[in-house]
Amino acid sequence: MRLLLLLVASWAVLGVTLADSSYNYFRLPTALRPQKYNLRVLTHFEDPDHLNFAGTVKILVEVLENTRNITLHAKNLTIDQSLIELRDTSSDNKENCISSTEVNPIHDFYVMHTCNELLAGDIYELTMPFAAELNRQLEGYYRSSYNAPATNKTHWLSITQFEPASARLAFPCFDEPNFKAPFVVTLGYHKRFTGLSNMPVKEITPNEKIADYIWCEFEESVPMSTYLVAYSVNDFTHKPSTLPNSTLFRTWARPNAIDQCDYAAEVGPKVLQYYEQLFGIKFPLPKMDQIAIPDFSAGAMENWGLVTYREIALLYSSTHSSLADKQRVASIIAHELAHQWFGNLVTMKWWTDLWLNEGFATYVASLGVENINPEWRSMEQESLGNLLTIFRKDALESSHPISRPIEVVSEISESFDQISYQKGSTVLRMMHMFMGEEAFRSGIQNYLQKYSYANAEQDNLWESLTEAAHKHRALPKTYDIKRIMDSWTLQTGYPIINITRDYSSGIAKLTQERYLLNTQVARNHRLGCWWVPLSYTTQAEQDFRNTTPKAWMECDAVSGEVLPKTISGLPGKDQWIIFNTQLSTLYKVNYDERNWKLLIETLTNGDFERIHVINRAQLIDDALYLAWTGEQNYEIAMQLVDYLRREREYLPWKSAFENLKRMKNIIRQTPNYEFFKRYLQKLIEPIYQHLNGLNDTFSGIEQQDQVLLKTMVGNWACQYQVDDCVPVAQAYYRSWRNEVEPDKKNPVPINLRQTVYCTSIRHGSDEDWQFLWTRYKNSNVAAEKRTILSSLGCSREVWLLQRYLALAFNPQEGIRKQDSMWAFQAVAFNEIGFHLAREYFIANVDAIYKFYHPITKDMSRLLTPLSEQTFLQSDFEDFKNFVNTNRASLKGLEQAIQQSLETMLTNVQWKERNYRQVTRSVEALLDK
User: Fold this and answer.
1) Cβ-contact 467, 529 below 8 angstroms
2) What is the 3-state secondary structure (H, E, C) of 833-855?
3) In what order do the strands lie in the sheet with 85-88?
4) pLDDT at 14
5) DSSP characters for 501-528?
6) Which residues pair with 123 in a beta bridge?
7) Choice among 102, 217, 219, 336 that is catalytic
8) Which of 6, 290, 347, 465 is the most exposed place for a label (fewest CB within 10 A)?
9) Binding-site residue positions for Zn(2+)
């Protein structure tokens, strides 16, 4: 706030009108276009209480239409109007001048009225000075810090985070993605630091005015959007890892974490080379830097040539990070490097098509990781994980289309959600599977070549892919990608396909409608039509490799309504069919009761492993969802789930646990929890024993996803006190506590640490909690710190949980702002902590909002555990009233609030409709 007052004051002094500009549209005018930026920024770290920067930007501006003003973006910058210069480079450097300026704070516009009209065809050089505080808000050009253990001193660094619309916080600019231009960046700083930017260093010269300061000028960049500009001043060290004949590649971190860069330094160049082959285009820049930032709001950011990461997303320690941590690092690196083509080389015209960036990077990252680590089977894991997420999120009426209109800048950040990322990725995978490898790859390469260094929208992509699909005969000439894919990207939700078989004639009738969790929504609100590629197999055939559609569900070209669909040639009454091979398309399937029973028979007594592992996961997910909303009864669903006592693969168990967790969140607060708990113990015990419990058998496990299975099963087994899980976990923890140097030696198996810590804190003493909190403060590894944060919330002591909630939002206590939500979520998902967390959130909502402002995305994540565990009508009404009376402290969270309230409502409906039925089904299975 201090800075804002300073700016208002300085603008008033300099004669700037702080009023609504006469131009009040949310997008920039199109009369001008930047051709090149020359940006000089001087950063001061001397006084920790006043870290600041000052600079000058020179913008070459082409005039496309006659105009008398220049409108660009500037926010929270001190700009001295008297020092702004404007000259016409087209006519003997003729001076123009700025007669007055005004500010539109709603759209962050800085408007300069010119003395003389700017004429179309001319090119002007605009020079503007600016200054501001190096802010603490994790956006724009901001500060971060770390403590050096040897000296216990704070070391400061600066970094940028401009996506989606924060370059305007760092320098005046045309801050929209379609105003691409080359940048020449020059950084000024004390010579003991290092400067980094998108491009390699061109030259370093002494600062002519400040002793021991230097100017570091970087090479001119390729044309790029403002949100991809990046620079940093730091005292980091780096690890080089260039592959032969490839781009210069470096991985940067604070000096006391550089030993955690080895894995990222190995993965990055490999993935970059794979993408060069996949896209048929060389990486366009001469170097690639990736850097781990201690304070960072996003997971990572794809700035061209200087990718920034949270420490947990880039750093990996073989002695502290689990396999899941390692896979996350590989996946995030692959995601950010995919953006160098999808997003950076070809950029969406406007944030409506954000999914072209994020959906593509998410999908292509799974191809990249699969290429360098096929033994992980991560493509299957990633695909199923995305589908499970979207089946949940997109079944809410309050969801939104993948491609959504953005009409206010504040709406952009809400689009960085699971719909843009996971649903975007899922529909691309669907398209890849129905087009085939050759046509898909050819279409993508054509699209990237056609729009390199330019901007595109989704219709441009559809054109390139349709052309390739027809050329390679992947689609009939009468089909085009736009008609198919618009039904997935412009429409909210996904379909449920009801399949009714006539067993005597071998025919099935298919219908589709939108699947919704809210069962009170009227049938006429479930309308919609999706173009659905239909792949399927039969019990006799069991061909799960072929994902090519055998038929399509189509939509009428005029009315948009579903065209009737019948499939013939199906087997008789003793054979099942399974639709959606390898879950290649985003839809739920409901069969008639006979088909479900045939499937249950195979799963329970037959050769169930011949059904593809993803389809086994699908059957569990579909059966439990359909039972949740009443399209199926729980007796069938729970009989199907019961086969899991035979299952030894990771994906079906993941699907089951995701669904059982939602039921558990409600049932554990009811009198019949005892039956549900006993049922889960009975279900989990065989797989727990098969995996040798919590014994450290990891070195002998060959299949990497079995490591993930053992980790997940161990977690559930200890929660439900299966077999010896709790005492074994406590024994591990005791042996760690007995170590002379517990920060250097930890006998707990790395992949079981989350389970061991949480179990020991849940069943442990105050001293156990304090021991772990000390380990958190002493740890130098971000992944370990996150594991500990999540485990500290497992306590059953009310006073400890209340103390922990207060610690989470106190910046002096050593939990960084971006990590506070892990602590809150851990408390809130704890059965005792839930009520404490809800009360804490309601009582402190103003303070929490101020803590996160202006980046409210993390605050929205505090709502997830609150919504998933609310199931009483009275609690739902109370939360609705709370929202209505606290709108100001929930600003920017409108989408998250709406989805949270809808989730609560669906829980209320489930409890009223299904609770007794589930209890009966569980009791019946216990009696078997």
Assistant:
1) no
2) HHHHHHHHHHHCHHHHHHHHCCC
3) 94-96, 85-88, 123-133, 52-63, 32-44, 183-190, 213-218, 201-206
4) 40
5) EETTTTEEEEEEEE--S-TTS-GGGS--
6) 62
7) 336
8) 6
9) 335, 339, 358
* Residue owning tokens 């299904």: 914
pLDDT of residue 421: 96
Q: Which residues contact 259 (CB under 8 A, 6 or more apart)?
A: 317
The first and second tokens of residue 794, run together, are 């497992």
Q: Is 181 left (phi over 0), alpha (psi -120 to 50) or beta?
A: beta
386: nearest Cα among 412, 357, 366:
366
What tokens were used for 690? Answer: 């098969």
Beta bridge partners of 100: 113
What's the CA gap between 842 and 863, in Å, rounded? 11
Structure tokens at 302: 């794809």
Model-level pTM?
0.96
Contact between residue 453 and residue 345 where contact means Cβ atoms under 8 Å apart: yes
Report the C-alpha gap between 730 and 757 in whole angstroms: 8
> Residue 523 and residue 514: Cα distance in Å, rounded?
9
Could you tell me which residues are beta bridge partners of residue 133?
A: 52
Tokens linked to 69: 């003003």
In the chain, the domains with their CATH numbers are: 1-233 (2.60.40.1730), 337-489 (1.10.390.10), 495-612 (2.60.40.1910), 799-928 (1.25.50.20)
The amino acid that residue 207 corresponds to is N
Query: Is residue 72 within 8 Å of residue 174, measured between CB atoms?
Result: yes
Residue 207 and residue 266 in contact, taking contact as beta carbons nearer than 8 Å: no
Measured distance CA(860)–CA(866) in Å, rounded: 11
Q: Within a 10 A sphere around the Cβ of 106, how many other Cβ atoms?
A: 13
Please report how the helices 378-393 and 323-338 are oriented relative to each other, as an axis angle in degrees rounded to 10.
Answer: 80
- pLDDT of 302-338, one tens digit each? 999 999 999 999 999 999 999 999 999 999 999 999 9
Contact 171, 145 (CB under 8 A): no
Chain centroid to Cα 649, Å, comes to 26
Residues 6+ apart with CB under 8 A from 336: 290, 300, 301, 302, 307, 309, 361
Classify 85 as helix, strand or coil: strand
Cα separations in angstroms, 777 against 53, 721, 770, 772, 813: 31, 30, 11, 9, 9
Between helices 782-792 and 820-828, what is the axis angle to 10°? 30
Q: How many other C-beta atoms lie within 10 A of the C-beta of residue 109? A: 23
CA angle at residue 335 from 331 to 340, to 5 degrees? 150
Which H helix or E strand runs over 332?
Answer: helix 323-338
593 is catalytic: no
CA distance 84 to 306: 30
Distance between CA atoms of residues 357 and 534, nearest Å: 28
Asked if 77 and 130 count as a contact pair (C-beta separation under 8 A), the reply is yes
Tokens of 283: 């990486």
Token reading at 594: 């006979």
Which tokens in the block code for residue 645?
């006592």
Beta-bridged to residue 62, according to DSSP, are 33, 123
Q: Which residues are annotated as a binding site?
A: 335, 339, 358
622 contact partners, CB below 8 Å, separation of at least 6: 588, 589, 590
Question: Does residue 854 have a cis bond before it (omega within 30 degrees)?
Answer: yes
Q: Cα–Cα distances in Å, from 887 out to 498, 870, 899, 901?
A: 41, 20, 15, 14
Looking up tokens 């006998």, which residue turns up? 747
Listed in sequence order, the DSSP H helices in 539-608 are 593-605
Q: Which residues of the chain have pLDDT under 70?
A: 1-21, 92-93
Angle at CA of residue 332, ends 330 and 333, nearest 5°? 65
Provide the greatest CA pair distance for the chain: 94
Residue 149, pLDDT score: 85
What tens digit of pLDDT does each residue of 586-642 get? 999 999 999 999 999 999 999 999 999 999 999 999 999 999 999 999 999 999 999
Q: Which helix H or strand E contains 533, and what residues bound it?
A: strand 532-534
